[in-house]
Amino acid sequence: MMLDDLSSLFLGPSFARGAHGELHRGTYKDDSVAVRMSQILDDYHNNLDSADKIQKQFDREFTFLSRLHHPNVLKFVAAYKQPQTFMIITEYVSRGSLRSYLNKIECNHELLSLKIVIAMALDIARGMGYIHSQGIVHRDLKPDNILISKDFHLKVADFGLACEESQCRRLTDITGTYRWMAPEMVNGRKSYNCM
């Protein structure tokens, strides 16, 4: 759903920052939400390339998240778009990223039980299986883009680099985080296949 006005949205403080925007905690119609806000500013830091990148990332995120409905995929709530402001509103996932969780475990010299590791792997596999069944290639799966809910279920997030499988085959750019890339991308085949 694309919002026309923001009267039902309360935007709280920023809790994270990315390359093209900030994450805010907020409320939308009395539900706790996360709001990713990107702005194209009229200063020397922004040029046409970065403005185009922000626009394309927003369009992809909105297109894919709004059509995905699965317990292991971040739930889309709404979006807002004005000429220089873009917002993606999703459920708020309270335990943060898998990366943060694993770092905390490591810092505390703790070990995860095999049962927990298998449950985590199954959640990610279920989410990715569903995403692929919808003909979507994520292209940036990594611990930073896996979120943990309050009941300890994992959810795939961040569809800013995703694409339709049929269109991914035609793309020639190498996209994503190098150390987490699919082997076929690293080897230069530059082609994805969901199945």
TrEMBL record:
Protein kinase domain span: 9-195
Any matching Pfam family: Pkinase
InterPro entries linked to this entry: Kinase-like_dom_sf, Prot_kinase_dom, Ser-Thr/Tyr_kinase_cat_dom, Ser/Thr_kinase_AS, Ser/Thr_Kinases-Pseudokinases
PANTHER family xref list: OS01G0201200 PROTEIN, SERINE/THREONINE-PROTEIN KINASE TNNI3K-RELATED
Name of the protein in question: Protein kinase domain-containing protein
Classification lineage: Eukaryota, Viridiplantae, Streptophyta, Embryophyta, Tracheophyta
